[in-house]
Model the fold of this input.
Amino acid sequence: KMENDIVAPQDGTIATINVAKGDTVDAGQTLITMN
Done:
């Protein structure tokens, strides 16, 4: 298993989470949407 920190370029609030625990993700895939 791999765990990575995700750093946002600005402060904000997470509006949606587009992946679930255990999902396989692709490079460039949107993981979250922020307000």
In short: The two ends are 29 Å apart (CA to CA). Residues 1-35 form one domain. The chain has one domain: 1-35.
